Predict the structure of N-acetylmuramoyl-L-alanine amidase.
Amino acid sequence: MRHTVLSRLAAVVALAAVTAGCAATGHGRTPPGDAAEPAGPAGPLDGLVVVIDPGHNGGNADAPDEIAEPVEVGNGEKPCDTTGTETDDGYAEHAFNFDVATRLSALLTESGATVILTREDDTGVGPCITERVAVANDAGADVSLSIHADGGPGTGSGFHIMEPVPIDGHNEDVVVPSHDLAVLLAEAMKATRMPPADYIGTDGINPRDDMGGLNLTTVPKVMVECGNMRNADDAALLKDAGFRQELAEALAEGVTRFLTS
């Protein structure tokens, strides 16, 4: 199936080698939006802005009071951030999220997009979910997506894509394009080795009204739960660097199809 993703992606995305070595900022909340990649060479995404939000952060566990601060998310309050989940043998979600986001950033940049990451490393604290969504809103991004992995029941398997539902006074204008984005991403992800979730959502799509990043967005946005870290089969895939590249290629295909349709 990986060859299927590669061949489909080649029509719209020029593949790039993944870059590594982000500079650490040390302890303290990561300044949102600092990790911006300049636009790549002219390509199908030339002139477009994509914001990628790698969920959580590596320093969150050392700052429980800071990440527990309540923030307003459009229909109530939630903690500023959380530590995320991990596999049974300790592979952390925050590390997975950042790895996939970095790979995806390289692919989209090579296609001409200007890519902004909401955090520049995996050692800081936060930023809060409200700060993360503000990065995309303030940039007037053409599209935004959050990268996550779920901590669902161990018997459940698969990916699901959380999309916004209307929240009065906040996201009404982008609910429909966000759904279109979710559908295209789900189609691309079905060509990977990770199936749609069998324990939540429908055919890989999961509308939510309890996610601050979706409630407050003013640009098309979804949150991608790339698999279930508490499921042994999913965890084996999520820990595999080859699959993480496969996943990034599928996400790049879905984003590119959305932005060029």
